[in-house]
Predict the structure.
Amino acid sequence: MAVLRLVTLVVARYDEAIEFFVEQLGFELVEDSPSFTNDGREKRWVVVRPPGGETGILLAQADGADQGSVVGRQVGGRVCFFLEVADFDVAYDRMVSTGIEFVTAPRTEPYGKVAVFLDIAGNRWDLLGPGDRRPPGYRSTTEPAGRVQDRPSAANFPQPTENRWKVTAYSHPATMPPNPAMLRRNSSGSNSRPSPSR
């Protein structure tokens, strides 16, 4: 088994990033401990994580001009993180009340509700939640396991009838059972079939 434990997010300053993720977004501060760069300079090891989540975000303060140039543009302006919540409306209202900037209005897609917001660095995130129109068999990872109304059931599929075709696969025409109609078309009057080619 493999687990994606951490992803790195380059930020301008540790404390401002921690405040955004913990106070505004509601993440947990998993770790904030002293560490060192590869060349021995001091830094901090800062990890935040959504409540109940498994994958954490390592907040890495930009070190130098090269790293500073990617703050807010780690994926070239595309949506780079997808935050899935159990109740979209509650999460959306809470985030707006804490000052998080949404750059799109909430909308309903076949997979659920979605709206795009910006983190403190300007990276784009999708806020995702279950909606009213979901494909058959879809179940959000944040839904209780006992909810089955969105899963396919036997009642949703056609039931076999006496007139339904039965499909059987054969490896070679010579192994198929005789077809009376085809036998009548055999001009030789023989009931033989071609032998398998060698």
